[in-house]
Amino acid sequence: MGDGKIIKGAMRIAIVIFSFAFVLSCDSCPRKKVGGPVDILPGETCSECGMHITDVKFAGEYVTSDGRVKKFDDLGCLVESYIKEKDKVVNIWVKDFDTGVWIGSDEAVFVEGFTTPMNYGFVAFRRGKRDGLSFEEFVNKIKGMIRE
Questions:
Q1: Mean pLDDT in the chain?
Q2: What is the pLDDT of residues 113-128, one digit of tens each?
Q3: Which residues make beta-bridge pairs with 54?
Q4: Where are the domains of the chain?
Q5: 134 three-state secondary structure
Q6: What are the distances in angstroms from CA 113 to CA 103, 120, 123?
Q7: Which sign does the torsion angle of CA 27, 31, 36, 40 carry?
Q8: What are the two backbone dihedrals, phi and then psi, of residue 45, each rounded to the nearest 5 degrees?
């Protein structure tokens, strides 16, 4: 009877160890485009400037390698934050200004000349709808604005 308790105890310990090892191995894997973008809920604030995200057609977000989702009220805020932690960013989503649908930054062009929450003046459209900047060109444009 005592041997049964020892075996059950050893099995429990083994399960805990294997579960812990599994969690650690999954946590070190990069997260790329898994599950898509996360909805912005009423009352959420911009990860860069702290303002409430009131109009999602100007919004963007990205996911970091540790699984954190950062949400932004203005695409300029997204870029300012992206510049600071570029090496940790694994996926970037922006709202298509026309449709309100999330699109990947690689599927978007960025167009200047709009009134936006933080006055950066850029919105995103699905590539092919309009002429605009690629994400890399957009980042460089915002870097230039920050330096001025």
A1: 85
A2: 999 999 999 999 999 9
A3: none
A4: 1-30, 56-147
A5: coil
A6: 20, 9, 8
A7: positive
A8: -115, 160
